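Quick one:
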Amino acid sequence: MHNIALGRYLPLDSVIHRMDPRSKIMIMLFLMISIFIPAGVYGYILLAIFIMITLVLSKLKPGYALRSMKPMIWMMVFLLIINCFALRTGTPLFHIGSFTIYSGAIKQTLYIVVRLMMMIVITTILTATTKPLDLTLGIEKLLKPFEKIGLPAHIIAMMISIALRFIPTLIEEAQRIMNAQASRGVDLENGSIKEKIMAILSLIVPLFVSSFDRADQLANAMEARGYDPNQKRTRYKVLKMTGADYTGMALSLCVMAGCIVIGVLL
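Output:
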């Protein structure tokens, strides 16, 4: 669990780190939209090239981004099994007893896996290159126009920021509980299904209790400091767009337009 990268900020000096959080959030949204455009293999290649260039410019190692995908491995295996049972399209590839695996099931699973991997890498780059407070301010600024229709921009931004901030904390807490349970003889890897379920419950219950306790401590700390989300707030740091921000958003828009064109031509 120490290798999980999602939600961790890395204080490096790169072009991506110095960009305005609003532009990075908008770039992420453009890329997320592009991922779901049915542009086929060529669209995914275009997205992958842009993501790899962004990864290099942010000075993040590819292995760091790949580590954030480890929690998704079992989900990917589960999707493969479901698709093999549900999809009967394409040509038969091989047989397992009386059951036939079709090419359509494998192809559909690969599309889903690639989409998940791209979304995780994009989110990892955003959280690794943006401070939680800057991310909160960026989300709040982007949601500011919607306050005219009653949307609580600051409250939503604060909730998202706190959720991202506590991902690494909860992971470390889960690792600590696992070590404590292992020292008491709990085996989380071996045993029957019933024993594994009981072992997982011995992890989940104290983790939930610890999470609620941390939430209560955070609420008390914010209340003790006089935090009121409805009051008008001033900012020490003023966000300002630069040429790199406009260039990044323009390039991400070009990628999205390219995916749309490829999808239309296909």
